[in-house]
Amino acid sequence: MRAMSITRPLLGAVVALSACAPDRALERGTRRPTSGEVGGMHAVPVLTIAGDSGSGHPEFLGVVDAMRLSTGVIAVADRLRPSILLFDANGRLIRAVGRRGSGPSEFESLSWLLRCAGDSIYAFDAELDRMTVMDAAGGVVRHFRLPTPPFRLSCISGGVLAVLDRPRIIERMDPRGRAIRKYSGNLWLANAEGDTVGVIGEFDVGENRPLGRLTSIAIAKERVYVGTAESTTVDVYAFDGRRLSAIDIAVARREATARHYERAVDRMLEAFTDGGYREQMKRELLKIPRPDILPPYSDIVADVEGTLWAVISAPGDTVTQLRVIGADGHVRGDVTFPSGTRVLEVGPDYVLALEVTDVGEERIVLYEIRVG
Predict the structure, then answer these.
(1) Which of 359 and 263 is assigned the larger pLDDT?
(2) 36-371 CATH
(3) What does the alpha-carbon distance between residue 151 and residue 143 come to, in Å, rounded to a whole number?
């Protein structure tokens, strides 16, 4: 199961961007891999869904999320398309659900797809501030609203939803009397109907800047992972809010290069379709001094068994690299994917990812994870 891992539009929301890789393992790569073979773990692509004239699928315009049901059906949400596309286990389009609007089967700005209860599809619309619950065939079952707007969401099929609130701005003074602005949000749990069932605590959400560190969350059976990226560790909490332990991702710090910084800025601006505005904002963002060191990881996701997957590569690296850590805290290995791959969902033996070709075509790729 996953938390949000796709970058949202800019400035006013804190945006997830970058990460770090161990030593110079990523620097040495020169080829564009189609599968990963690091630490005895292999990511083998078994299904690719791409919209083009030959396939008959609608073109992906800006995928924000995707999820896979137990039947093999894959649901895809696009930020520029007010519908959810359902594909069968062979990648054939089954149907498109929804249209623009605020009615029962309508959307304005899809942001997340989650599997919270069996094979139900939970679709969150940021513009309507509403969760739509659908059955496996795409039929709308109900809607509900969360008590507060979310910044991060993660869910498990047992029906527990982890919500990190949209951050509040907190201003404090340093010893010299200068204002320090921090972003803070509450992390709490809800049931499959959106009712509050527990509180984990309040967390610093991160830094509103390119290559800034940001807090990620992931939920698994009986535990919630919280990664603030302040260090190489991820904290583990019980559902009652008790801090159980900390898991060390075990990555070495790396210098943030000009290449990393420019690619991170580009990623922040991908959601903007106006080329002139995007170039103007890029010039402004590049004026912000880049940090000396990359954050140790940019995102964390977890499968239902509690295995933690941390994205330890950075924008601009030659590959995307994930470190896989068992629920016992032991590193199981690393898995690599093509550069720029965005992990959307993980399972015990698969990764569902978004990739962009050299000509800008978006595609959904299902990888089978093999060990040994």
Answers:
(1) 263
(2) 2.120.10.30
(3) 19
